[in-house]
Amino acid sequence: MKKYILMVFCFIILAGCSSASGNHNRELEKSFSSALNEKRMEGVDLNSLTDFDWEKAYVFSPYTPQKAINEKLGFNYKDPSSIDFRDDIYLVVFLHNNKVVQYIELTTQFRNVIIDTNDGYFTPSNATIKASD
Fold first, then answer.
1. Phi-psi region for residue 43, left (φ > 0), alpha (ψ -120 to 50) or beta?
2. What is the pLDDT of residues 113-130, one digit of tens each?
3. 33: closest CA among 96, 88, 95?
4. Angle at 32 between CA 31 and CA 35, to 5 degrees
């Protein structure tokens, strides 16, 4: 009986930690940083780098509070990067069906990430991100 309870407890812990925050896509992170470094003001189209389905991508600046992230996304999201305490990254969160599916941490070597959208987020039809020094 103790083994059964322990197995159930472990399963609950693992299930709770697994994909609640989406996958940290380090490969996309490297590709995007490299591409943005080459084409800062021209911009980089996220579609050319992503190989997963997404409907919206939000960019959060350094020190963005958890509450502001939740308000922007429209649901509670446990930010795995702790951006509210960091000044070294931008957090880019990809949503599909109102769930976080992937996220990347973009270093602040790009002083200003330009969010040139009316809605404050990117979509596959409007997915060009620019940066400046």
1. left
2. 777 777 789 999 999 888
3. 88
4. 85
